[in-house]
Design a protein that fits this description.
- The complex is a heterodimer of chains A (about 290) and B (about 250).
- Chain A has about 290 residues and is mainly alpha-helical.
- Chain A has 11 helices and 2 strands, in the order H-H-H-H-E-E-H-H-H-H-H-H-H.
- Chain A has one domain: ABC transporter involved in vitamin B12 uptake, BtuC.
- A two-stranded antiparallel ribbon of chain A has the order 1-2.
- Chain A is globular and about 60 Å long.
- The relative contact order of chain A is 0.21.
- Chain B is built from 12 helices and 10 strands.
- In chain B, helix 3 packs parallel to helix 7.
- In chain B, the strands form 2 sheets. Chain B has a 6-stranded mixed sheet, with helices on both faces.
- With about 250 residues, chain B is of the alpha/beta class.
- Classes of the chains: A mainly alpha (about 290), B alpha/beta (about 250).
- At the A-B interface, helix 6 and helix 7 of A face helix 2, helix 3 and helix 4 of B.
Amino acid sequence: MSHQILQYILSGLSTGAIYSLIGIGFAIIYNSTGIINFAQGEFVMLGGIMTWFFLSVFQLPLIAAMVLAIALSTAVGVLFERLTIRPLRNASPLILVIITIGASILIRGMAMLIWGKDTHSLPMFTGSEPLTVAGATLLPQHLWIFGITLFIIAVNRFYFHHSISGKAMRACSHNRRAAGLVGIDVKRMVLFSFAISSALGSVAGIITAPLTMTSYDVGIMLGLKGFCAAIIGGMSSGIATVVGGLLLGVLESLGAGMVSSGYKDAIAFIILLLILVIRPQGLFKKAETERV
Amino acid sequence: MLRIKNINTYYGQVHALKNVSLHLNAGEIVSLIGANGAGKTTILNSLSAITPPRDGEILFEGKAITGLAPDRIVEMGISQVPEGRQVFKDFSVADNLELGAYLRFRSREKRSIIKQDMEDVFILFPQLSERRKQMAGTLSGGEQQMLAIGRALMAKPKVLLLDEPSMGLAPLVVQEIFRVITRLREEKGTSVLLVEQNAKAALKIADRGYVLETGKVLLEEKASDLLENREVQRAYLGKEKKEIWER
């Protein structure tokens, strides 16, 4: 039994890592624009499906296909910001959020037209020989997921806390007006945030595709789960959202294993509703107090 | 060095500045006084391109800067210290100053020079020096004001726009801040456009002053003359009519 629980926890952590990456994408855009980008999940889909496409149709090596897929997804994210968010900069957040939903449907529809409705799989990055850890089995791909997620979180943290352009981006989200007055180009930072978020989303989509397969519609569920992670983390673009994602992944996996796998998705949304009702500021954040 | 010619600025339908013209010479401290809603802050925001004027012209060192984006204005050498300080509360004091030099980092200026300028700010405001690592949101009001000024100085401005630096501060702190403003002019030749409710204190350190009322320039005179002007004394310096006439 305890082996089994360990197994659930390990696989939960690996799905949770994916949710964290997607959640950070939500948080970065929320912090720079104040909107929830419901198209975030589509970048996850684009990452996975484009890697498959370059790999199987163009016969590119895996690493080249991945780099190309990340670059193209990022380009789509940048284009998305340019075409929808920037022209409507003065619109209310509600309108912008609805636009992101529209964009998500559009991207998904186009993906269906281009790549069809089939489910595709990516090869594991390095073999599929399972490893045994204290009685639980892990695939090398799980290790890739943990490693890449950790690496991205570390880079993310360094960028936002130690580089001047990362600090400038945070400054925009804390005080847009003051950021403008010190000469930070706020519009450019919003564009950056879309670029970073779509890149993060596509990476998440690529590293998970060998385990979970990919198709034109994987973005909906993964996007919502990432959103849950960000809500649990109080829309922080740092460690809180990562913990939120891991927590969600583990609870989901334990629930699916011990209760019924039919409830897997329901568990995520029950958590989402509970958090929104009881602690809308996130699980870890104290209610805001401000000194004037 | 800075000249505003006949600008009109609107907030939506509200006509906030009506044909305002004023100028600021190199190394001068000019104070804008007037009641709430007279348009003092709007003039600064028109200069910083936060609320760009609908027409008219702004010249800086002979060049038209009307229509430039806010970051270009800072790059040209005009920095604003906004009303209510607006420091980045969740950032440390040092980070706030670093962000003040954002454009200089972007233009790949040497880090050592920027670091040196940060030390100069700490010499100007020794209180901040002890609190480098502290979050700006935990500073006192006076320290936040010093930080806001320091942050603006990090951009190496030729013109400093100060919006209500004395607001909500204890008289001693106000004195200290005003002393720093005069010191900046003496040491670096920075020109200052100073918006103040505290008209008396502002006029005391200023060379010239403009009196604004409902979006228009009412008067422009030497600061010492404005301090003596009876109408100004009554309206902005809080003296009763009786006191003025009995003197």
